[in-house]
Design goal:
Blueprint: H1 4-7, H2 28-40, H3 57-65, H4 69-87, H5 93-119, H6 136-164, H7 169-199, H8 205-229, H9 239-247, H10 253-268, H11 280-290, H12 298-304
Bound molecules: fe (ii) ion (FE2) (2 copies).
């Protein structure tokens, strides 16, 4: 275990929210539960004191060659700004406090990633100026649903990299708190969305649903663009498409989805069962999986499930 794990502790424990009694999405109990779940599982680690494990030349080269670092840093930069900007518009003090923490954690992810790339000598492309696109609610929805998509695949890719040995164990342990934080964020986000749509004036709801639909179309369009970039030598944006092969020794998409589904369930399992879980991406992935052959077989299964 690296010394880092003494500064970053695992945050997957069940929250001590104290919320109890009759429960309905959109009521005060729901609000208290999803906000306190985020707030009470905060992990006070400091990026500056993370002791990045020393890697042998082969492991370091594998890490450096991953086509993700620019997009990962920029995504966290945008997420921090989007979440913080929306937080400033929220009137409810508890929800606002939780969203402010969410923004703090996104900015901290950016710092963690910046320190990681510096520690391993990875060169980043110049960062763009971060600006909020659209109104603050739109930006928050884009970041939230985007995280629901990306985290689902990231959980599976991270686990695949752990099982295959692509990521050395010390690095897995060092980075684990960031992964668990993303599961807290998407859990918080889907519950916020459920609460928000039930507490807004009735006349606003159809507009909100249209906005959510537009966000999904935007995100799917964006990802189709990302997939198209794969053949154009773009360094980034294509990690889910090529990532499985990078980290998992030619693991197939069916196998990856199986691992994503299992990991998603595992990472969500510690939290209060009354809370809503991110459902759309696992449901779509599960549906797509039904039409695919294959899975984990034979020697590869033994290796990956070890
Ligand atoms: Fe993040
Ligand atoms: Fe996040």
């Amino acid at each position: 275990m690296s010394s880092t794990t003494s500064t970053i502790t695992d945050t997957s424990g069940a929250p001590q929210s104290g919320a109890d009694g009759p429960f309905r999405f959109g009521n005060d109990l729901h609000k208290t539960l999803f906000c306190r779940t985020l707030l009470d599982t905060f992990n006070p680690y400091q990026p500056a004191v993370i002791d990045w494990p020393e890697l042998d030349a082969e492991a370091r080269d594998r890490l450096v060659s991953l086509p993700i670092w620019d997009i990962a840093v920029q995504t966290e930069g945008r997420a921090g700004l989007n979440v913080a900007t929306y937080g400033q518009t929220v009137a409810d003090p508890l929800v606002r406090k939780a969203i402010e923490l969410n923004a703090f954690e996104e900015r901290r992810h950016k710092l963690v990633l910046s320190n990681l790339v510096a520690a391993y000598g990875i060169t980043l492309a110049p960062e763009p100026d971060y600006v909020v696109q659209g109104d603050p609610e739109w930006a928050f929805l884009v970041t939230g649903y985007s995280e629901c998509i990306d985290s689902f695949f990231a959980f599976g890719l991270f686990e695949t990299a752990r099982r295959s040995g692509f990521f050395p164990q010390a690095l897995v342990e060092t980075f684990e708190p960031v992964m668990q934080e993303e599961s807290r964020h998407i859990l918080f986000f889907v519950n916020w969305a459920a609460w928000h749509r039930r507490t807004m004036p009735v006349w606003r709801r159809p507009f909100f649903e249209l906005k959510v639909l537009a966000v999904w179309i935007f995100l799917i369009w964006e990802r189709i663009g990302i997939a198209r970039d794969v053949g154009n030598g773009a360094q980034d944006n294509n990690f889910t498409v090529t990532g499985a092969k990078s980290v998992g020794d030619d693991i197939g998409i069916a196998e990856l989805i199986d691992i994503c589904l299992t990991e998603n369930k595992r990472r969500m399992s510690p939290y209060d069962q009354r809370l809503k879980r991110p459902a759309a991406v696992p449901a779509l992935a599960g549906l797509a999986r039904r039409f695919m052959r294959g899975g984990l077989k034979g020697a590869r299964k033994d290796r990956l499930i070890a």
